[in-house]
Amino acid sequence: MKLSPTLRCPCKGAHLKEAFSYDTPPIGETAFDLHGAPYQRHYERCDLCGHWFGRHGLDISELYNADYVNATYGGPGGMAAKLKAILALPPEESDNAGRVRRIQTFMAQAEGRRLLDVGAGLGVFPSVMKSKGWEVVAIEPDPRTIEHLRRVVGIEAVAADLLTLSSEDLDGTFDLITFNKVLEHVEDPVPLLAHARGLLKVGGVCYVELPDMEAATEGPEREEFFIEHHHVFSPASLSLMAERAGYHLLTLERLREPSGKFTLRAFLVALRVPK
User: Fold this and answer.
1) Which of 22, 190, 215, 268 is most deeply buried (CB count within 10 A of its CB)?
2) Span 16-270 CATH architecture
3) Residue 69 has pLDDT above 90, yes or no
């Protein structure tokens, strides 16, 4: 299986140049089961838009259905402990506190408070948004994560691929759809982002948060370039992805979070809602 990340670029990779190469995992990367395959992968960078594409032939197709929860958290019990620890962080040390604050400010005039969080993970963000009065629905592929979100976080959660879901499956449309550090894990994020348009209310907003290629200035050992990240975005490539998915870019910000992560965050509104 060869990994072929794409943003459906018209240039078809004509401006790609090889950048980082790896023959051993960088320090801090989760030790996923690669079935004995030699660890070889690399990143290519587009000289035109500045986007980074991860390339390798390692089989990580079952990563989020099986291995991720065990390898990252040590199983469901570890998820609950990690959630508690992150929620206990002081605001000045919490990436999530800044995210919630920014979204709450941006959405202050929104009439509704219905949120779909795609790739909710531990549930840190939906947990806080629930406490702020939002009705939250989360999507995750792993049944163990779904059970954690329902039982520990106390929100509605659906085990499914977003591309298979309609507004009828989710009991209506949403005022806000969030992709917090999700789209970089998807080989072809454009259809996923485009599909979300049909789940937004008229005037609804999509929030996207992604790793920033600015991390490249500090070298290939950065978390942004770990094996599960198929994409690392530039402001230009985020903007182009949004356009290809049928959105108008409302805001685009660049920041370094309390954790040290280099991050891009953007608010998008659908140009048109598909029938």
Assistant:
1) 268
2) 3-Layer(aba) Sandwich (3.40)
3) no
